[in-house]
Structure formats: C-alpha cells, structure tokens
Amino acid sequence: MFSLNKHYIIIIVCACLSYQVISARGASVSVGVNQEDDDFLNGTFPEGFMWGYATAAYQIEGAWNEDGKGESIWDHFTHRLISPIIDGSTGDIACDSYHKYAEDVELLKALGANFYRFSISWSRILPNGTNDVVNQPGIDYYNRLIDLLLENNITPMVTMYHWDLPQALQANYGGWPNESLVEHYENYARILFENFGDRVKYWITFNEPFNTCELGYGLSIAAPGILGEAIQPYLCAHTILKSHAKAYRLYESEFKPTQNGQVGITIDTEWMEPRNSSNPDHEEAAERARRFKHGWFAFPVFFGDYPPVMREMVDAASAAEGRNQSRLPTFDDNWKTLLNGSLDFLGLNHYTTELVAPGGLCLFPGWSCDQHVTKTKDPNWEGSASAWLKKVPWGLRKLINWIKDTYGNPKVLITENGWSDAGNSGLNDTQRIGYYTDYINNVMKAVILDGCNVQAYTAWSLMDNFEWANGFTDRFGVHWVNFTDPDRPRIPKASTVALKKIFDDNGFPEEK
Ligand SMILES: *[C@@H]1O[C@H](CO)[C@@H](O)[C@H](O)[C@H]1NC(C)=O
Ligand SMILES: *[C@@H]1O[C@H](CO)[C@@H](O)[C@H](O)[C@H]1NC(C)=O
Ligand SMILES: *[C@@H]1O[C@H](CO)[C@@H](O)[C@H](O)[C@H]1NC(C)=O
Ligand SMILES: *[C@@H]1O[C@H](CO)[C@@H](O)[C@H](O)[C@H]1NC(C)=O
Ligand SMILES: *[C@@H]1O[C@H](CO)[C@@H](O)[C@H](O)[C@H]1NC(C)=O
Ligand SMILES: *[C@@H]1O[C@H](CO)[C@@H](O)[C@H](O)[C@H]1NC(C)=O
Ligand SMILES: *[C@@H]1O[C@H](CO)[C@@H](O)[C@H](O)[C@H]1NC(C)=O
Ligand SMILES: *[C@@H]1O[C@H](CO)[C@@H](O)[C@H](O)[C@H]1NC(C)=O
C-alpha cells in the first residue's frame, strides 16, 4: 500500500486542488445512499482456500549494504540529504529480517499461515541490476528462507519486484520509463526461476505497478522521486507491462513444463463507488475511474491492450495539448499477442473505497486529470492511522464482483489487505480485528454467495515495518515491532489471535 507523505502535500497541492474544491462541495451529497453492509454471514470458505501473510524486502529486510547487496532506488531515495520520509527514517535496518528470518518463519507457523508472500530484492541478487554479476550470498539468503518455510509446511509465494529497482538501472537508463529495462527484467526473472523455481510455485512479477509509475515517476512521492506526471508514468507502465509479458512467456515456455508453477501480477485498486448511485453520470465516472486505475494494467494482461476509454481520453487530451503523439504509448501486434492472457492468476491488493463523481479542475496534464473524475471519502467512514485508509468492507465485495464481471471470473488471489494504527496504540488492536473480520466476511460472501473465484487471502502485514514515505509512523502489523530496540523484538497484538481463529476455522462457522 502507499499513502501520501504529508511533506509532499504542499508540492502536489495543485494536483489535489481539483479534488478539494469538488470535495468540499461534494461532501454534502455523498451521504444518504444506503451503503450499509448487510448482515454478517456465518459459513466457511471452500476447502483448499489459502491463508497467508505478506511483507516486502525493503520494508523488512534491512542489511541494505551487506554481503554484496547493491544499492536500490529506495536506499538512494531514503539517503537523500533532505529526507523525503516523514520521520526521516530509512529501511537500512527496518525489521532486520535479513538476520531474523528464522524468527519470522516461527511467527508464521504460530499464526497458522498456509503461505508467506515475500519479495526478492533485485539488487541483493544482481547488485548492478544486470546479470553480468550474480551475488551468491543473496541467492543463499533466499534459499535459506524458502527451505525453512517448506520445512514448516508454509508455501512460499514470491513477489519478484516490490518497488526496489537496482539504483544502477535508474542511474544508467532513467529507470522504468526506459524500454531497455524489459531485457534486464527478463534476465533477472530467468535467474529467479533457475535458482528458486524448483521450490517456488507462485510468482508475482510486479507489485502495484500503479504506485511504482504514478508515485515514483509522476508525483515524486516514492522512489526514485521523479516529478513528471504527463508522460513518465505512462512510459513506466508500458515498460512494466512488457516486462511482465516477457517474464510470463519465459516461464511458460522454459520453466512451466518442468516446474509446474503459476505466474501472475498484483494490481492494487480502491473500490470506485459512484458518489450518487442513482445518477448515471456518476456511475459512468466510477467505471472510468476503475478502468484508469485497475484496467490500466489488467486490460493489457487479460485482453492485450489498454482499456478503450483510456485510449480515447488520453489521445484526446494529448491532441488538445498540441502534441503530435499520444502520451499513452501503443502496443504493436506482437506485444498484444505476448500480453494477451499473460497470467495464471490475478493478484489483488485492496484497502479502501473512493466516492467518484464526474469532473474536476485540471491544472496540469497527467493520469489524474486524464480521466475527468473527482474522488472523495465519506466522512462517516471509520479511519485508520493513514489518512487515505478508511474502513468500507462492502467495497471489497463489490470490487471482487466487478473483477468477475469485467475479466470473466479469473482466479484471484487477494495478495494484500490490512489496517494501520499509530506507534503508541498498544497491543489491543480491536479496530484491526474489526477490519479483518468484516473484510474477510465480505470476501466470503463474494465467494459463496456470488460465485467469485477467489482462492487466497493475504493479510498485510506480518509485523509493523517501514511504511515507505510514512516511515515507521503507520503500523500495519499483527506484531508490534520496537524500532528503537537493536534486537527489533516482534510482540503479538490481539489481532494475531483473532486472525489465527479465522484461518484455522476457514472462515466463520456456526458455533456448535
Ligand atoms: C556496480 O556499479 C558500481 C558503480 O557503477 C561499480 O563501482 C561496481 O564496480 C559495479 N559492480 C560490479 C560488480 O560490476
Ligand atoms: C534508455 O537508455 C539508453 C542507455 O542509457 C539511452 O541511450 C536511451 O537514450 C534511453 N532512452 C530514454 C527514452 O531515456
Ligand atoms: C442523485 O442523482 C439523481 C438522478 O440524477 C438526482 O435526482 C438526485 O437528486 C441526486 N441526489 C443527490 C443527493 O444529489
Ligand atoms: C486475445 O485473445 C483472444 C482469444 O484468445 C482473442 O479473441 C483476442 O482477439 C485477442 N486480443 C488481442 C488484442 O490480440
Ligand atoms: C513530434 O514532436 C516532437 C517534439 O515535441 C518531435 O521531436 C518529433 O519529431 C515529432 N514527431 C513527428 C512524427 O512529427
Ligand atoms: C481491548 O479493548 C476492548 C475495547 O476497548 C476491551 O473491551 C477489551 O477488554 C480490551 N482487551 C484487553 C485484553 O485489554
Ligand atoms: C523499546 O526498546 C527500547 C530500547 O531497548 C526500550 O528502552 C523501550 O522501553 C522499548 N519500548 C517498549 C514499548 O517496549
Ligand atoms: C458466526 O461467526 C461469528 C464469528 O466467528 C461467531 O462469533 C458467531 O458465534 C457465529 N454465529 C453463530 C450463530 O454460530
């Protein structure tokens, strides 16, 4: 997940102005629609449903320059002279999982997790991003982790890219907007499949490419911190989609026949609810927002090309700006074929809901403006420690149903869902328990009442960790971590008990 760093609100105030103008006006019309959850459902998930926890390398590993690891864009970003991180912190040590991974596996076991979704740090394997130098100690680290998971009957699920590009690829190529990265990503993917594919059967090529591109290369609030919303995010997304397709096809042709694993991509989105659900213009705006956010990445991997509404609107905006070329690049037929159907499962990260209405004042061109929508929150929604994260459990059920209807009921793995509290909130995290209970209950409704093909649920996160631009201020863990103690002890919160019960029960059975 990602939240806007308060330091940067001032810089992007122009981008937000359009939202705020409308938001002040819109708040009064946003309520009154009956969006209440229906009753709690007792029942269980189908047999074989998978339960797990997720983390990401930069957020937990630490050891940023140990044993031959190269610098990543997040190392570089957090080490800037003027810190872009709200509390000035870095992931240099984070949860120290590079040294404490065995304890993490113990925690997962105690929680009754069937699988663990973690990410591999590209620059720990290839210090300079390219495959001319392979760092064996990096390979050894992930071998130890994978083997220990398997010894404990916990299935490894690997995210191949969770935002930490090797800095050398940023410095030498300008990062993801440069198409040269497709080849480097494919080489990296091959090294992962070759070294770990005998034991790893779930591969996620990219985590939340929206955030990599829009926040990293557009709004500059994530690494590498580049401001250039008009074109850079669209080029970044284009390279990432091609890289995904190449890795998928590589696995399909050279590894799948013997390794029998699955490859997917994790796309994040809020549920986009029309602000006024009886106004067709609001419903149309909400659908546009869904396609600009989720469809930007999902349409190409399911159908081979960007959503038609993006093509029309970005082309039109580009022409109106006097450009001779659309800001949204095009795929030729060869790329369309490689992309079309390039996933064995869809990874879904979801946290919250937006209310969407048409319009918005556009001050500079880019993804936010291109879709002509305004997003607001209902002030009645329960809030977390993160300004962007409000509890709207029915939004997840609606989103899963929309995915079923839009993409033909694909296999979905929920790869992240979770709740933040603040540093001093203690161990009795009743709000988090309420969030998980109600969100998981809505997933169950989508599966057993609506026939949606969701096969796994992943809680974010195993423990408090480095929350990107928000540093250590927003805590998403079911374990509390003391970041001032050099030993980084992990202390269970009350939610560990509640989630273990849901996992063990496979849902919410009637009490006998
Ligand atoms: C990686 O790049 C750095 C800086 O460009 C360079 O000093 C170093 O020699 C490179 N390392 C390898 C192993 O090629
Ligand atoms: C991509 O990187 C190569 C190698 O550094 C460079 O020659 C080229 O100009 C870059 N392309 C763009 C679009 O930045
Ligand atoms: C919602 O939209 C309908 C249809 O356009 C309209 O009649 C109604 O007044 C709107 N409700 C609010 C609260 O704006
Ligand atoms: C994608 O594949 C489907 C069937 O497999 C085909 O009908 C469709 O035309 C393809 N789309 C593109 C853009 O190639
Ligand atoms: C389009 O405009 C850019 C500069 O804005 C120029 O470099 C490029 O050559 C133009 N392309 C065509 C096809 O006219
Ligand atoms: C946790 O908080 C809830 C609600 O505030 C309270 O009812 C409960 O007794 C607390 N549990 C513990 C162990 O303190
Ligand atoms: C966190 O660790 C520091 C250093 O060991 C210690 O002084 C402090 O009491 C710990 N905080 C808590 C809440 O345990
Ligand atoms: C339904 O599930 C909840 C949550 O596990 C449980 O507390 C409740 O007792 C169950 N209801 C019935 C009727 O068994």
Structure notes:
43% of the residues lie in helices and 14% in strands. The chain is α/β, with parallel strands linked by helices. The chain has a single domain, classed as TIM Barrel. The two termini are 38 Å apart. The model is unreliable at 1-35 (pLDDT under 50). One 2-acetamido-2-deoxy-beta-D-glucopyranose is lined by residues 303-305, 336-337, 340-341. It comes from Orchesella dallaii. Residues 1-26 form the signal peptide.
Helix content: 40-55%
The whole-angstrom Rg is 22 Å
The CATH topology comes to: TIM Barrel
Strand order of the largest sheet: 2-3-4-5-6-8-13-14
What is the number of beta strands? 17
Q: Catalogue the unreliable spans.
A: 1-35
- The pLDDT mean sits at 93
Q: Structural class, please?
A: alpha/beta
Distance between the termini: 38 Å
CATH class: Alpha Beta
Number of domains: 1
The main sheet comes to: 8 strands, parallel, barrel
The assigned CATH architecture is Alpha-Beta Barrel
Q: How would you name the CATH homologous superfamily?
A: Glycosidases
Shape: globular
**What's the tally of helices?**
18
Bound molecules: 2-acetamido-2-deoxy-beta-D-glucopyranose
Q: What proportion of the residues form beta strands (DSSP E)?
A: 5-15%
Features:
single chain, 512 residues, alpha/beta, TIM Barrel, eight-stranded parallel β-barrel, three-stranded mixed beta sheet, 17 strands, 43% helix, globular, binds 2-acetamido-2-deoxy-beta-D-glucopyranose, GH_1_N_CS
